Amino acid sequence: MYEELLKNTALADERFVVMTAENRALVRNLPAVLGKRFIDTGITEQTMIGAAAGLALRGRIPVVHALSAFLSMRAFEFIRTDAGIANLPVKLSSFIPGFLSDGNGPTHQAIEDVSIMRGIPNMQVFAPADESDLVTMLPKIWNTPNPAYVRICTRPAKYQHDTNFEIGKAEIISEGTDVTILVYGFMFEQALITAEILREQGKSVGLINMRSLKPVDEKAIIKAAQQSDLIVTIEDHFLTGGLYSIVAETLLKNRMTADVLPIALNEKWFKPARLNEVLAYEGFTGKQMAEKILEVAVSYQL
């Protein structure tokens, strides 16, 4: 779905250029279709970003591809300086972010990328829940004049998403008065399970697919904090700088307080394994998260 969308977008608009740093997993069939508008720079993420910025200065819209860890960290200075400062429409497709790098060790784990990317002025940051959500969101992301970082998730959809995506708006799956879960990206799949288990335990549960992390839907966060006894943030990211930090910043900005339970990686990388094994070992399965939330609800007397 991703490759087909990108192909059709590029064929319809000659401004689009597809680039990769020798990571063709998402775009294997595009070289033959796009010809000179497909550029593989080799394992040179920094060079790719510099070239993409140059193309953007000349009216092109580069959609660039690399492993999340190398795109967000190895090429960071180039993204910040070449794309961020100049506010150029360089679109970053970040492959296997978070737990999706499952069997890879810490060097290949992008679990600080949201923090890094949202710190760049002008940079927009997005995290679709699955492939259906991804292709719903990308047309508007690719048509903004800003640089954008997208945590790519091509997992099959377990939920029929709202197709009326707006930048800066979250997708409200449900509203609840006991617990509201805020989540983004791949972890949405497990959050659905968590929410269902909590409902079976008699809890009124809200679930929000954040989608857009920068700009973020502050109104959705504030409303959730006002109407729920407990806010839960779920993310396959370090505790620092991700959704938990975003929620804290939003509440402080609006002179609010709330009971917030973060479920994230606290000062640690995850143990490499098959994806399901990673989730179970780190405590991120839907069932494990529901148990953690119920335990906290009891201790808080919620």
TrEMBL record:
Its EC number is 2.2.1.7. Its cofactor is Mg(2+). Residues 2-156 form the Transketolase-like pyrimidine-binding domain. The keyword Acetylation does not apply. InterPro entries: Dxylulose-5-P_synthase, THDP-binding, Transketo_C/PFOR_II, Transketolase-like_Pyr-bd, Transketolase_C. It is an enzyme of class 2 (transferase). The keyword Magnesium applies. Gene3D superfamilies: 3.40.50.920, 3.40.50.970. Keywords: Isoprene biosynthesis, Magnesium, Metal-binding, Thiamine biosynthesis, Thiamine pyrophosphate, Transferase. Pathway: Metabolic intermediate biosynthesis; 1-deoxy-D-xylulose 5-phosphate biosynthesis; 1-deoxy-D-xylulose 5-phosphate from D-glyceraldehyde 3-phosphate and pyruvate: step 1/1. Homodimer. Belongs to the transketolase family. DXPS subfamily. This is 1-deoxy-D-xylulose-5-phosphate synthase. It comes from Arcicella lustrica.
